[in-house]
Design brief:
The structure is a single chain. By secondary structure, the protein is an alpha/beta fold. The chain folds into 4 domains: 5-132, Response regulator (Rossmann fold, 3-Layer(aba) Sandwich), CATH 3.40.50; 137-264, Transcription Regulator spoIIAA; 270-282 and 292-385, Transcription Regulator spoIIAA; 389-459, OB fold (Dihydrolipoamide Acetyltransferase, E2P). The chain contains 14 helices and 22 strands. Helix 9 (251-259) runs parallel beside helix 11 (288-301) and helix 12 runs parallel beside helix 13. The termini are far apart. It binds iron/sulfur cluster. Residues 160, 162, 164, 167, 169-170, 204-205, 245 line the site of iron/sulfur cluster (SF4).
């Protein structure tokens, strides 16, 4: 490779994948590569795949085509969950040169020479695979990514020891394991030194932080202790917990968030179903009564807290009655929005073999109903916050003349675009809900109020 070597990345799936792409990208820059956009010409294209993505195979093929279009002579490398679960399937896709499994993905640069030395692929020939048995993925690689200059995703945990019957993540990512407390604190301090105001703690099952033994070290800290220690890191303004299982969200953590300096009053708690029968079929580790208890606990000490809920529709055995049980359960619960997932069968899962399969049309209809309920819940939550004083962190994109931001309790607000506001925190009073569902506000500090009124003047 002559001249500056260039590499481009495409990430599918969750925040964890995004943080890991950043770590892989840092490995490339240490080897002298310049990172470019995916539609630009590069010598290497890395696709970090996800097994949960709808139509994962079609999506993957079209991304490979994009890379080939940008540079037909480039090498295309696939990593990530899908690459671990179905390496041969990906290696057989035309244009794919190398597929790396869960233990290999962070060593991608060490495979470059092998790629360069390999004979050019003839049509129909598969890419090279370096895969592993998932049991071998028992070590931990820490990572974080910086999104749009205002927020960073910090990985604190990986893998999962649970056995939910619909889920392939334990097969793709291995056992539950965590970063050391010291590493997390160091990464958090590094992020805040870069001027990032908000850190989102991510992992597959972060409430499980600290559990288990791997390598030759026994972990010594719990998730609660991690929160306590992070709260003390100087320079961090905001910490957000991305998603936590209800059975692992302990009272001590909720109480701590309520009085913490940095943790924001926003919880995202997977429910998956409001029917205890289905929760049992899914092998979740709680019943709906525990979920109600978690929501009540949060709301009783933080009435302004935002609570997001993951829910799956169309799981085998979801009769009309059980679906309505979920619908009414969520309707009555004091939550703020839903993330609705339409169930789809995954190979090598217990649920894929279950009877009482719900027809796809019914799954889609139920999904639509819950999305409608989510919109209603979000609106009601936003309305309940009007007239209150909050703090907003403004984001970095100009969205058709507006700047967006999120309050600590995850209310999405908008104001006329002003680049000076990017990555700044401001005290505001939430005023009204716009036609697009976003919230208008007034600044509470003088300086920003002046520039706001000037903006409004120009708007007229
Ligand atoms: S808790 Fe269940 S759904 Fe979540 S990653 Fe683990 S096995 Fe999958």
């Amino acid at each position: 490779m002559n001249g500056t070597k260039k590499v481009a990345f495409y990430t599918l799936g969750c925040k964890l994948n995004f943080s890991e792409t950043s770590t892989i990208a840092r490995g490339f820059s240490e080897e002298g590569f310049e990172r470019v956009e995916f539609n630009e010409k590069a010598q290497i294209y890395v696709i970090n795949t996800c097994s949960v993505t709808e139509n994962a195979d079609k999506r993957f093929k079209s991304i490979v085509k994009q890379a080939q279009k940008a540079n037909p002579d480039a090498f295309v490398i696939a990593v990530g969950c899908y690459a671990q679960l179905k390496p041969q399937e990906l290696a057989d896709v035309d244009g794919v040169d190398l597929v790396l499994g869960a233990t290999e993905k962070f060593k991608v640069t060490s495979y470059l020479n092998e790629l360069l030395d390999a004979e050019p692929k003839s049509p129909g020939q598969s890419g090279i695979i370096h895969s592993c048995e998932i049991e071998e993925a028992d070590f931990y690689v820490g990572s974080y990514s910086i999104g749009d200059r205002t927020r960073a995703f910090l990985k604190v945990q990986d893998g999962c020891d649970y056995k939910c019957t619909y889920c392939t993540i334990p097969l793709a990512r291995g056992i539950s394991r965590s970063d050391t407390l010291q590493n997390v604190l160091q990464n958090a301090a590094e992020i805040s030194e870069k001027g990032i105001k908000e850190i989102v703690l991510t992992g597959v099952n972060i409430g499980d932080y600290g559990k288990g033994e791997f390598g030759n070290k026994k972990h010594e800290h719990t998730f609660f202790e991690l929160c306590e220690a992070l709260d003390e890191v100087p320079g961090i303004e905001r910490l957000r917990i991305s998603s936590i299982e209800p059975n692992l969200l302990k009272n001590e953590t909720i109480d701590f968030v309520a009085q913490s300096r940095t943790f924001v009053p926003h919880f995202h708690i997977p429910l998956q179903s409001g029917s205890n029968d289905l929760l049992k079929l899914m092998r979740r580790r709680y019943l709906k009564e525990l979920y109600i208890d978690r929501v009540h606990r949060i709301k009783s000490i933080m009435p302004h807290a935002c609570i997001g809920v993951d829910v799956i529709v169309g799981f085998p055995g979801e009769t009309e009655e059980r679906f309505l049980e979920t619908y009414h359960f969520l309707n009555e619960l004091d939550i703020s929005y839903l993330h609705v997932f339409t169930y789809s069968e995954r190979d090598n899962t217990v649920a894929a073999e279950m009877e009482q399969v719900v027809p796809m049309k019914v799954r889609q209809k139920r999904s639509k109903m819950l999305r409608g309920l989510s919109a209603k819940k979000r609106r009601a939550f936003y309305e309940s916050q009007l007239g209150t004083n909050r703090t907003v962190l403004f984001e970095g994109e100009n969205k058709e003349g507006y700047i967006h931001g999120f309050t600590e309790n995850y209310v999405k607000v908008k104001a006329p675009w002003n680049p000076e506001l990017v990555n700044t925190l401001h005290e505001i009073m939430l005023e009204s809900i716009d036609e697009d569902g976003l919230v208008r506000f007034q600044f509470r500090n003088e300086q920003a109020a002046i520039s706001d009124s000037l903006e409004r003047l120009f708007e007229q």
